[in-house]
Amino acid sequence: MDDDVAVDFGEDGLVPAVAQDAETGEVLMLAYVSPDALAKTRETGFAHYYSRSRDELWQKGKTSGHVQRVEEVRVDCDADTLLYLVDQEAGACHTGHRSCFYRTIEGEHVGEEVFDPDAVYDD
Amino acid sequence: MDDDVAVDFGEDGLVPAVAQDAETGEVLMLAYVSPDALAKTRETGFAHYYSRSRDELWQKGKTSGHVQRVEEVRVDCDADTLLYLVDQEAGACHTGHRSCFYRTIEGEHVGEEVFDPDAVYDD
User: Fold this and answer.
1) Ranges under pLDDT 70 in chain A
2) Which residues does the annotation say bind Mg(2+) (chains A, B) (predicted)?
């Protein structure tokens, strides 16, 4: 049996995690993960992250229903970045897009809109 | 004409950038980008990053030849993460793998080895 990779959470106790659509390969979002968020993700099978602005653990989609079922967690060579391979409900982005990366740096809109954010979020 | 998206480089002046194979969708690596690294990337068409450990701008593959030709740069909704869509020469990872995400968190080896690191790197 393989041993778990020891993740290097660094000074601030967080690592970036890239969420990728397990089926299409689309990169959906990047957020940060604490040891607790990683443990919850592995325990429940749903993606959890740590919000730096709200200073709390959160489950993606808990409010909106746009959860991420995690099929696999990968670790990079330095063990300081994670890759979540997920089955994304509706869209990952609070703007209504499937992916948070819906713009080029030139400002061109290239992403798919999959839901109406006004119908999903209260604020 | 669209206007460039103003990237939020935050307190430390860096944003994470995910490099993704533009053709296959494979997530190859994550590294950090400074304003200068982003400018160089856009100017030259080759991926540049900022090394936090060496405290310097670097061009991916400058030594190894495993450069990344950047087809598109995307920005996420908060404008604090970049996505480089790249044409990766050989492999992105110094370990000889195509992708730095060659292991699951359980330690299972899932990535493809594409070159011999001993033949490419001196140290």
Assistant:
1) 1-2, 122-123
2) 76, 78, 80
Domains located in chain B, CATH noted: 15-110 (3.10.20.810)
Q: In this predicted structure, what is the pLDDT of residue B123?
A: 52
Residue carrying structure tokens 């740590």: A50
User: What is the distance between the alpha carbons of residues B80 and B43, in angstroms, rounded to a whole number?
Assistant: 20
User: Which among B16, B120, B100, B42 is positioned nearest to A101, based on CA atoms?
Assistant: B16
3-state helix, strand, coil in chain B (%, to 5): 10, 35, 55
B114 touches chain A (CB under 8 A): no
**Counts of helices then strands in chain B (DSSP H, E):** 2, 7
Amino acid at B41: T
Whether A113 contacts chain B with CB within 8 A: no
